[in-house]
């Protein structure tokens, strides 16, 4: 008799996980006002909706998250909007001294949430760009959200022009700080490389294709189609690495090493070059285990003292799923 534990793709119907349909979906862009693929994609969607030209596979709420930052083409005007969605920050009382982005986060929580409630959006996709060579990544707070993992698996199968990966931040839901955490399911769709403040056609087209495929998947799921199980490689954040700094002035004294630059998701081994000091010295990775770097030399993270992030990769088995709405 065949052992089904050793052959997870051979599942009985009883093994299929039934999940609620995704009846309320939001696509958000401009959370960071200078990440222009999402800004222009949202503008196009809103423009077509006004002209009644959109043939959506599912009802979608399209949102320009940070209009003031978009107007100025800056990441944010006072504070990073995409760090304002913890339960603690959403519970703060607004005053005249409250930053625009904190007020806006509470407005978005009312529109798309409230976070953690039964009324929250079923799925939020928040669109972002990175200057790092990361391809297309779905960034989430769960490594066991079957909806998000299946969407990633579907994009990996359907998109031939760009690599698709799944990044997991192991943070409690209440402390999750980004806009996508307001939904019952959600992720940031991060695509790069693209410098902030400009738009590259190939990156925009990849984002547009990915959003359309996402909505196609939701339509299929809601119609009762069954998605077979399988596996997805999940990259779980282990730590962030700062640039080397002068101990007195705290100014940066080294750049990302040329051997590491643009090698996001290429395994970094202990002893590999990590930084090149401005005096010409190679500074090597001193970790005890090989890890996968990403967000390498992201320009927006200089202010956050992050030169790169490091992750462990593991294969997560996902079950077959189907919508319980039949």
Structural class: alpha/beta
Strand order of the largest sheet: 3-2-4-7-5-6-8-13-12
Mean pLDDT across all residues, rounded? 93
Strand proportion: 15-25%
Outline type = globular
End-to-end Cα distance = 34 Å
Major beta sheet, specifics?
A: 9 strands, mixed
Radius of gyration: 21 Å
Question: Can you characterise this structure?
Answer:
With 326 residues, this protein is of the alpha/beta class. The protein has helices at residues 36-50, 67-72, 87-90, 100-112, 146-158, 201-222; strands at 17-19, 25-29, 60-64, 123-129, 135-140, 164-168, 185-192, 230-241, 254-256, 273-277, 282-284, 292-294, 308-318, 321-323. The chain contains six helices and 14 strands. The protein has a nine-stranded mixed beta sheet with strand order 3-2-4-7-5-6-8-13-12. Helix 5 crosses helix 6 (201-222). The protein starts with 16 loop residues before the first strand and ends with a strand. 41% of the residues are buried.
Supply the key terms.
about 325 residues; alpha/beta; three-stranded antiparallel beta sheet; nine-stranded mixed beta sheet; about 20% helix; 6 helices
């Amino acid at each position: 008799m065949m052992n089904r534990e050793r052959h997870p793709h051979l599942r009985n119907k009883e093994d299929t996980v039934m999940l609620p349909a995704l009846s309320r979906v939001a696509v958000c862009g401009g959370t960071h006002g200078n990440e222009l693929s999402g800004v222009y994609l949202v503008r196009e969607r809103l423009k077509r909706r006004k002209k009644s030209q959109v043939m959506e596979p599912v009802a979608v709420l399209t949102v320009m998250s940070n209009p003031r930052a978009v107007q100025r083409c800056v990441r944010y005007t006072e504070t990073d909007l995409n760090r304002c969605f913890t339960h603690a920050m959403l519970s703060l009382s607004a005053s005249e001294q409250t930053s625009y982005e904190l007020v806006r986060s509470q407005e978005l929580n009312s529109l798309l949430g409230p976070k953690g409630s039964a009324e929250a959006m079923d799925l939020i996709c928040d669109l972002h760009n990175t200057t790092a060579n990361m391809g297309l990544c779905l960034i989430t707070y769960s490594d066991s959200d079957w909806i998000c993992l299946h969407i990633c698996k579907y994009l990996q199968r359907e998109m031939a022009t760009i690599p698709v990966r799944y990044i997991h931040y192991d943070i409690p839901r209440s402390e999750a700080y980004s806009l996508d955490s307001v939904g019952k399911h959600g992720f940031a769709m991060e695509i790069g490389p693209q410098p902030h403040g400009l738009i590259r056609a190939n990156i925009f087209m990849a984002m547009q294709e990915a959003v359309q495929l996402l909505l196609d998947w939701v339509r299929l799921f809601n119609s009762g189609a069954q998605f077979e199980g399988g596996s997805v490689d999940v990259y779980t954040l282990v730590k962030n690495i700062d640039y080397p700094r002068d101990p007195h002035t705290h100014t940066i004294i080294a750049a990302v090493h040329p051997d590491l630059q643009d090698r996001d998701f290429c395994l970094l081994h202990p002893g590999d070059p990590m930084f090149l000091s401005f005096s010409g010295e190679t500074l090597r990775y001193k970790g005890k285990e090989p890890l996968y770097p990403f967000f390498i030399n992201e320009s927006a993270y200089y202010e956050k003292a992050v030169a790169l992030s490091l992750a462990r990769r593991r294969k997560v088995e996902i079950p077959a799923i189907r919508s319980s709405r039949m």
